[in-house]
Amino acid sequence: MNLLIVGGAGFIGSNFIRHILKKYPTYRVINLDKLTYAGNLNNLKDIEGNANYQFIKGDIADERTVKKVFRLNKIDAVINYAAETHVDRSILDPSAFIKTDILGTYNLLEGIKEYKIAKYIQVSTDEVYGSIEKGKFTEESPFKPNSPYSASKAGGDLLCRACVKTYGLPIIVTHACNCYGPYQYPEKLIPLFITNIIENKKVPLYGEGQNIREWLYVLDHGNATDFILHKGKVGEVYNIGSGVEKQNLEITHFILDELGKDEAMIEKIKDRPAHDFRYALDCTKLKRLGWQSEYDFPSALRETIRWYLANDWWWKPLKSGGYLEYYKKQYQR
Ligand code: NAD
Ligand code: DAU
């Protein structure tokens, strides 16, 4: 199978490419990625010499780039990981989110239509459903996005829905919960807190740290996407979750304990605007199809902490430049 992985130099995409090349030695992978601040070829250093792997630098918001990739390559399936993904950045400046997550998705959909691609997976998020106090979101839950990030993802997902209905395109949309694991840019909660504590810096917890997220190990996200690629039904939507719900404060204490630090390292700061209180996914549909998660939370988070401890060559350069401090200042009391 010839796979076009879009946005494969980011966190989830790079872990997925590694998984695919290892599990399916006959598959060919093309990775199309703009290399934004979040895209990093160091994420794929170990496979850059693999004969079945090719990297193309390009922006999906540019129609000509996308068309050229489809024209020049034989592609059986497309998996779109490319997006601007950080809620805090979307609050400060949504423009790149609109371009990549909506216009970029549109360009890819035009490509799969013109070149009659057999399968397209739109990798999306539970955040499109908004926040839920009790119960869980199913695939039928309405979209109620609260941040410019989730609104732009919802825009891309709705274009996918429209292309299924209008043109019968072979699209699957996935909505996953919060992922963690190696190669996650150190601006998101888990890698930011791990690396700050390793550097003996305080961790900026929004509000009282009561917000709840459902946490999925990145390799489980990869297993689920692999499963959906091979067994998922086109035209369908699948939630991908773990059932592991944790308050941000619990996550913070877990990391502090593992690294031998105490709560004096916590700095409570002003809350994120429109901060979603809780996400939780009902994954009955995917489980009925036969998928189940393989990793348990404490072991996978411990493994993740060990990875950041052993790989400061990877994350230290990403923390310089002051941008992380810049947007955190917006939230200071
Ligand atoms: P990431 O920010 O780590 O990586 C995004 C990748 O997309 C980067 O390599 C970046 O260079 C690339 N990219 C951005 N704009 C592009 C453009 N215009 N053209 C081509 N490439 C571009 O993101 P991630 O955390 O790996 O998330 C991947 C996907 O999964 C996203 O669509 C995100 O919405 C979704 N998702 C993420 C999570 C999570 O917890 N991280 C959970 C659910 C869904
Ligand atoms: O739910 C899936 C989504 O998970 C993905 O679609 C997004 O791309 C991904 O970034 C993530 O979004 P969140 O906003 O949930 O992740 P983040 O790591 O930014 O924040 C997790 C929680 O931790 C959230 O309640 C805000 C809080 N937080 C986050 C940061 C970065 C803090 O308290 N302090 C922080 O510095």
Question: What are the salient characteristics of this protein?
Answer:
alpha/beta; binds nicotinamide-adenine-dinucleotide; seven-stranded parallel beta sheet; binds 2'deoxy-thymidine-5'-diphospho-alpha-D-glucose; single chain; 333 residues; 17% strand; three-stranded mixed beta sheet
Task: Please describe what this structure looks like.
With 333 residues, the protein is an alpha/beta fold. It is built from 12 helices and 12 strands. The chain has helices at residues 11-23, 63-72, 87-92, 95-114, 148-167, 189-198, 218-231, 248-258, 284-289, 297-310, 312-315, 323-330, and strands at 2-6, 28-33, 53-57, 77-80, 119-125, 171-176, 178-180, 203-206, 212-217, 237-240, 245-247, 266-269. Bound molecules: nicotinamide-adenine-dinucleotide (NAD) and 2'deoxy-thymidine-5'-diphospho-alpha-D-glucose.
Largest sheet: 7 strands, parallel
Q: Structural class, from secondary structure content?
A: alpha/beta
Q: Average pLDDT, to the nearest integer?
A: 96
Percent strand? 15-25%
Strand order of the largest sheet: 3-2-1-4-5-6-10
Helical content stands at 40-55%
Question: Helix count, per DSSP?
Answer: 12
| Weakly predicted, low-confidence segments | none
Oligomer: single chain
Radius of gyration: 19 Å
The ligands bound in this entry are: nicotinamide-adenine-dinucleotide, 2'deoxy-thymidine-5'-diphospho-alpha-D-glucose
Write the layout of secondary structure elements.
Layout (H helix, E strand, L loop, with lengths): L1 E5 L4 H13 L4 E6 L19 E5 L5 H10 L4 E4 L6 H6 L2 H20 L4 E7 L22 H20 L3 E6 L1 E3 L8 H10 L4 E4 L5 E6 H14 L5 E4 L4 E3 H11 L7 E4 L14 H6 L7 H14 L1 H4 L7 H8 L3
Parallel strand pairs: 1-2, 1-4, 2-3, 4-5, 5-6, 6-10, 7-9, 8-12
Antiparallel strand pairs: 9-11
Bound molecules: nicotinamide-adenine-dinucleotide (NAD) and 2'deoxy-thymidine-5'-diphospho-alpha-D-glucose.
